[in-house]
Design brief:
By secondary structure, the chain is of the alpha/beta class. Helices cover about 30% and strands about 25% of the residues. It has an eight-stranded parallel beta barrel with strand order 1-4-5-6-7-9-10-11. A hairpin with a 2-residue loop joins strand 7 (about 115-125) and strand 8.
Length: about 220
């Protein structure tokens, strides 16, 4: 199982916040990185043995510019990248940034579901903008991310029933993110054969040891 640390970028900085209230996000403070420079943070992740990271360009997702030039400089590690894809034009622009993610929060062109990693973006228990059955029935064979935006940064724990339900319904590799509380959440994901776990707050607060996680779940 892959341990996939997160970098949320806003205004050129790595940021952190709770519950998807992005207007309240602040520059990241972390026990593993001295400053909120996304490039430095990505280097720290690599030094800890991480092979893949997840990047969300929050400015692009919110429709107020982008951080593409910065993301391109993080060229020394594999990246899954959510840049608020809406349509084919957006998709083509993002292809050189990393493995492209299309999220239900922003996606307009349904045909892209078969071309990219699909992020099932949940908020307050509901999939944003789409019917879950419709999305699951129109997937290609790319990985799927189950992302609970309202749980981001809260450490409330995973919605295990939702994850198990989706896992039982599709054959795609599944990544899980949003609200990781402790090692029990990681072990749960491992026990149901999840492909990878997106993790941020718990490692930046020192609750989970990133190096031990990477070594323990290779």
């Amino acid at each position: 199982m892959e341990i996939v640390p997160v970098i949320d970028i806003m205004d050129g900085l790595a940021v952190s916040g709770k519950g998807g209230k992005r207007e309240e996000y602040k520059p990241l403070k972390s026990v593993i990185c001295q400053n909120p420079d996304p490039i430095e943070l990505a280097k720290v992740y690599k030094d800890y043995g991480v092979s893949k990271i997840y990047i969300a360009d929050l400015d692009k997702i919110m429709g107020r510019g982008d951080n593409f030039n910065l993301i391109k400089k993080i060229d020394f590690i594999n990246k899954m990248v959510d840049v608020g894809i809406k349509d084919e034009k957006d998709f083509k622009k993002a292809k050189n940034l990393g493995e492209v993610i299309v999220g239900t929060e922003t996606l307009k062109d349904i045909s892209l579901l078969k071309k990219a990693i699909v992020s099932l973006d949940f908020k307050d228990g509901k999939l944003l903008n789409y019917n879950l059955d419709f999305i699951l029935n129109n997937l290609g064979n790319k990985p799927v991310i189950i992302l609970d935006i309202s749980n981001v940064g809260t450490q409330r724990g995973l919605n295990r029933e939702l994850i198990k339900d989706i896992k039982d319904r599709i054959d795609n590799p599944i990544y899980v993110g949003g609200g990781i509380r402790d090692l029990k959440d990681i072990e749960f994901c491992y026990s149901i054969d999840v492909e990878g776990v997106l993790i941020g707050t718990a490692i930046h607060k020192g609750i989970l040891d990133l190096k031990k996680l990477v070594e323990g779940y290779r």
